[in-house]
């Protein structure tokens, strides 16, 4: 019995005081159940993932940007060099655009009369409310900029989002605002942002609408698969490590994690899996869905290094609760890293991956 308890932390917290910091709140009072897992995730993020030689990838699902988490959490993480590359649903990137265009979204109630909202031209995302014109004006902005000459070729989604981010940054400057758009921040700091389902959002629908005319804009999904794998492969080949933070599940989660099976299974190159794994989810693992799949299950696919399971954690809670706490925790510690600026390195890293694949005779 005593051997089993040796080295374990005794549960004996101090009463919470008015002056408690977010660091002490998480370290000293989040001791068990999913609070304990959130503390573990925060500490792994701070102490292990944020070393300079670790590549940090993040997947984003759920309606996080319309809820303001792009502004409150994701932009500070990008600005401080704490996230190196991202995979997001197109919807999150579309709704992110509203803020850089000066559009307003409002905290409301999930119990509104939706028929009345429809009559009044108001859109509802659970308890977030905004005018229908927010969508229409954002659509006009997207179609206008994507009709420009620099969009008239086939490209990966990272380039698409980089170009959109450039125009977001310009619009923020004209409006006299800053730090409103995730895509603008990613553009400024050269953080590549991918989407795993380019057609599954209003951005994709606007690309499709332009395709009915003379637009030559096409999204090369194979380029996205190879580029993301190249980011991970380069980091690991150079002696570094790869970390993933999965906000929710779904397709973006798989797109981040499949970089390792693509390297190992498809390209036949030597690798062992991601080294650090944090997931925030409310999905159950026993239904067999990807959103609930655990790090240990990912080991069987080669997605996660089997030796890294002690540095893997799943927090079963809402991302809108966990992400602000984790962000506040690392920001309060004053954690910063030099920006890797991977957007500018994509072509070189992809060429290096291709050379090794050819050298291996695969």
Topology:
Layout: H1 2-5, H2 22-29, H3 33-49, E1 54-60, H4 69-79, E2 85-88, H5 90-100, E3 106-107, H6 114-120, E4 122-125, E5 128-131, H7 132-146, E6 154-155, H8 157-175, H9 182-189, E7 193-194, H10 202-211, E8 218-219, H11 221-237, E9 241-247, H12 250-257, H13 259-266, E10 276-281, H14 295-301, E11 312-316, H15 319-332, H16 346-359
Parallel strand pairs: 1-2, 1-9, 2-7, 6-8, 9-10, 10-11
Antiparallel strand pairs: 3-5, 4-5
Describe this structure in words.
By secondary structure, the chain is an alpha/beta fold. It has a single domain, classed as 3-Layer(aba) Sandwich (Deoxyhypusine Synthase). The chain contains 16 helices and 11 strands. The strands form 3 sheets. The protein has a 6-stranded parallel sheet with strand order 7-2-1-9-10-11, with helices on both faces. A 3-stranded antiparallel sheet has the order 3-5-4. Strands 6-8 form a two-stranded parallel ribbon. α8 packs across α9. The radius of gyration is 21 Å and the shape is globular.
Features:
single chain, 362 residues, alpha/beta, Deoxyhypusine Synthase, six-stranded parallel beta sheet, three-stranded antiparallel beta sheet, 11 strands, globular
Brief account:
This protein has 362 residues and is α/β, with parallel strands linked by helices.
In total, the number of strands is 11
Question: What count of structural domains?
Answer: 1
| Proportion of residues in β-strands | 5-15%
Structural class by sheet pairing and helices = alpha/beta
Mass-distribution shape:
globular
Mean pLDDT: 95
In CATH terms, the superfamily is Deoxyhypusine synthase
Write the H/E string, N to C: HHHEHEHEHEEHEHHEHEHEHHEHEHH
**Distance, first to last CA:** 53 Å
What is the CATH topology descriptor? Deoxyhypusine Synthase
Please tell me how large the radius of gyration is: 21 Å
Major sheet: size, sense and barrel closure?
6 strands, parallel
